[in-house]
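Lecture 7 notes: from sequence to structure.

We start with a single chain of 498 residues. Read the sequence below before looking at the structure.
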Amino acid sequence: MRKHLSRVMAALLVLAMALTMLPVVSAAKERFTATPIDGIPESGQTFVIYSAPAGGVFSPEASGGAVGVSAASGSEESANLTVQTGAGAYQAVKNADGTYYLTCGGQYLTVDSAEKLTFENEPMQDALVATTRSDLTVADLTQWVLTCGEYGVKAMALLDKANTSTYGNPEITKVNIGVGKNPGILISGHDLRDIQDLLEQTEGTGIDVYTHSEMLPAHYYPAFKKYKHFVGNYGSAWWKQTSDFETFNGVILFTTNCLVPPRSSATYADRVYTTGSTGFEGFPHIADRKPGGSKDFSALIEHAKKCAPPTEIEHGEIIGGFAHEQVFQLADKVIDAVKSGAIRKFFVMAGCDGRMKSRSYYTEFAEKLPKDTVILTAGCAKYRYNKLPLGEIRGIPRVLDAGQCNDSYSLVMIALKLKEIFGLDDVNELPIAYNIAWYEQKAVIVLLALLYLGVKNIHLGPTLPAFLSPNVAKVLVDNFGIAGIGSVDEDMELFLGK
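Now the structure, written as tokens:
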């Protein structure tokens, strides 16, 4: 039994690491040529050096690591770089075609620019090695899993920084759920850079842009508010797309996962495009952008011009944009409401939605929560209750939507900030309960991040993850208080003592 438990814990660790790790450079038995870049690096830009020069070619045995630029000086022809990490005299040398090479000690380097974040992570490599060992105890493997949660927090923090430094901090926003009079493109998924490209290219074309499902939080970012043709959000969670897309009438673009194969009778299948990591047989795929460039969405735009405007399926507004910085600005209001008893408890109801009827639990739970409680949410689970008339508490909406599933980081930051403000030693002393909707395996990294931060007594539903064998579930229950859900009335009594 102990060997079985160890194997399952090791498998969980490998799964979590696969979801946490950013791309790693693999240099074994490879040789590289120098890489041109578009311009002199700016302060804050990072380059990952795949290899260093050796005898006129590039060998992986002499890796240079990561170089973070803190300043650049010199001329347009040759700029000296002051770097945050690494050593050596780094320069950017201009080529005849206007591009630049990075050099160190006069030798040209092979690099990957900060267009995407790439790094090697030694602790993660150590963790992978640990999964091959047979002498580790369950406690040892559990600690490795928590270390994976630590890197989950760091990865989500990096993504948060990338999004907010590029598009601004999300702010309180009322999002239209009706329709306009123009043909539209509906964009689904998570990739904010894709929606940036799409909004830029559709401006002035007479085509409106709508978000779908997990792309809803794009409306919260200040950088996108300038686009008058960014009309609103259409439809609901990912699993309802086979009906939502029928009435949208226009072009649909998938940027990441959550694509449901269309029915054989679907009328929208010839209007669906994919890009990035998403693809489906028969759907045209938009190629990746070249470094420094944009994706070419001209085919979608021309197609959309031939389509009818969307059919209205609902009207009104939903409110969101309650990421960590926005909530911090409301801190005084929140603190006063908690101290006065106007807010009795917060419920973290982040997570995923799905088609199973048992997920109506979360709608009923939200409806039955007392009026002195507030829901903190992120991910598509919000669609179970974000259109309900749940009202406000002293001007604070009772549903605070932080954003996409990866924006669960904001919920963590809010909890830690409240812990600091109230002078508590343990985050579990806060008036916060965790009732999270579980669906797919990638959500494991959010769970492990919470466990690493010390959060206990998390409830998962409507069913526990399939990879939790009875033995592994026992470890999580005994050490962290993980539990499932019961009926809504039973859980109300459990959480609120009523």
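The radius of gyration is 25 Å. Keep this in mind for problem set 3.
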